[in-house]
Every structure is written in structure tokens, then in C-alpha cells.
Amino acid sequence: RYRAPVVPVMSVIAAVAVLEVVRSIRYRKVRSIVIISVIFLGVALLSSLPGPFPAEKANYEAELYYAAAGTLKRRNRPDEAVTYYRKALELERNYTEAYYNLANTYAAIGKLQKAIGHYREALDLKPESAMIHGNLAFYLVRQGRLEQAVKHYKEALRIKPDSGRIACDLGRTYAQLERFDLAIESLNKALLLKPDYAQAHSYLAQIYRQKGKPDLAREHFEEAIRLQNKPFPQLRDKTDIIEY
């Protein structure tokens, strides 16, 4: 009775393992076959031991559903992954990683409002996560909610002040709000933290061009090309952004 609720989860994991074995046999990956076989036998032996076990509680089941969801997501089956992430959250309401990865999955299939909602739930549980603040800010930008995005990028940078990427993203968002002085300040900070950051040079070039400073624009544009060997696309509108 302890293991019955996780049978569907184990079935998914077992099916994926079988597919990996078949693929490994096809390509003669002996090491992979051995590793998968050992894992399979280990799981089978542990499952056959008499119970009950202290670990076999709701949180244990939640972790299995979470693992199955990750497997389904990697297999490009996001709708099924969503179902398993939600099941994990039914079993463990304080599962930060499940909220975060459910949000990522919704974002990947274009359901941004649902993604944003679950990022916020993850932040309620882990408010000092720069990564969650950063991802939430990125998708707020995608929805044109730039003021809210700035708030979360600033929080992310407060938590992780040595991140050139976050400083660059904040600068880019300020530029989209046409707050060019703040944008320049943030982008220069990004370059102090990461001097070879081509994106930051590209954004600075665009800002200086809009401010009527062609010499500075050319300097940063040429540096961006030198670092990346190709020009970056211009920011055409509020949704023209770099993946976080």
C-alpha cells in the first residue's frame, strides 16, 4: 500500500530506461548498458524489500513525480511533464523546485501568464533566489511589464552583485524604458564585471546612437563585433530580447 501511488511514476521512469537500453544496444554503447542495468537492478532490489520504510511518505512520492516530470520534459513531452509537476505539488505544497520547473515548462510552451504565476509562488518560498527573480523578470519583459521586470532584476542583482549577466539584463530593460542614463550605468557595471561581454557593448552602441553620440556608438559596436565576430540584432521593440 505504500508503493501503490508511485506505480505510474515508476512506469514512466522504467519506460525511459528501456528506450535508453534499446538506443545503447543499437549504437553499441556497452558502458551505458551496464550503468542502466545496475540502476535498474538496484531499484528492483530496493522495491522488493519488506516495508514500511520511513522515507515512503508524501514527500518521497512527490520527489518521484518531480523526477518523472523532468524526464518527460527532456523527452519533449511538456504537457505530460506539467501533469507530473502538478502532482508533485499536490503531494508537497512547499516544493520550490517543482514550482520553478513547472514555470519553466509553461514558459517553454508559451503559457507565460501561468509561468509568471508559478515563478511568484517559487519566490514566496525562496525570496532570496537570484535565478528565480531573473527568470521572472525575463518573462515580465516578454509581456511588456517592464517596471515590474526592473524591480525583479534589481532584486536579483542585490542578491548576486557579481553577475554581469543580470546587470546587462537590467541595463537592457532600462533602455527599453528609454531611461538611458540608468541603462548606461548598468551596462558599464556589466562590463566591469565581465569585460568581454559582447552583448553589453552592443546595447551600449544602440543607446549611444539614439543619444546622438556616433563615436561612442561606433566604438562599442566595433568592440561587440570583435568579441563575437558578428553584430547583434538591434532592439526593435519591447519583445526583442535575449534568452535568459
UniProtKB/TrEMBL annotation:
<protein>
    <submittedName>
        <fullName>Uncharacterized protein</fullName>
    </submittedName>
</protein>
<dbReference type="Pfam" id="PF00515">
    <property type="entry name" value="TPR_1"/>
</dbReference>
<dbReference type="InterPro" id="IPR019734">
    <property type="entry name" value="TPR_rpt"/>
</dbReference>
<keyword id="KW-1133">Transmembrane helix</keyword>
<keyword id="KW-0472">Membrane</keyword>
<dbReference type="InterPro" id="IPR037919">
    <property type="entry name" value="OGT"/>
</dbReference>
<keyword id="KW-0802">TPR repeat</keyword>
<dbReference type="InterPro" id="IPR011990">
    <property type="entry name" value="TPR-like_helical_dom_sf"/>
</dbReference>
<keyword id="KW-0677">Repeat</keyword>
<dbReference type="Pfam" id="PF13181">
    <property type="entry name" value="TPR_8"/>
</dbReference>
<dbReference type="Pfam" id="PF13424">
    <property type="entry name" value="TPR_12"/>
</dbReference>
<dbReference type="GO" id="GO:0097363">
    <property type="term" value="F:protein O-acetylglucosaminyltransferase activity"/>
</dbReference>
<dbReference type="GO" id="GO:0006493">
    <property type="term" value="P:protein O-linked glycosylation"/>
</dbReference>
<keyword id="KW-0812">Transmembrane</keyword>
<dbReference type="InterPro" id="IPR013105">
    <property type="entry name" value="TPR_2"/>
</dbReference>
<dbReference type="Pfam" id="PF07719">
    <property type="entry name" value="TPR_2"/>
</dbReference>
<feature type="transmembrane region" description="Helical">
    <location>
        <begin position="34"/>
        <end position="53"/>
    </location>
</feature>
